[in-house]
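Homework help board

Subject: predicted structure for assignment chain

Our instructor gave us this sequence and asked us to write out the predicted structure in token form, then describe one feature. I got the tokens but I'm not sure how to describe them. Can anyone check?
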Amino acid sequence: MAPITQETVDGLKDIIHKLESRVADLEGRLVHGSPASSSKSLAEQFRIILIGPPGA
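My token output:
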């Protein structure tokens, strides 16, 4: 098994940081609402995120 280099570790940390910022952005949109999501209820939005759209 190849040793894990510092470059690999830094790359993984960068990916984790990007994912955390995307999650924070999505949570912010959910809390503050976005113009595109105003027509759907909170339950419908969660369903699409967790399960997928109806019929998928």
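Reply (TA_rk): Your tokens look well-formed. For the description, you could write something like this. The longest helix spans residues 6-32. That's the kind of observation they're looking for.
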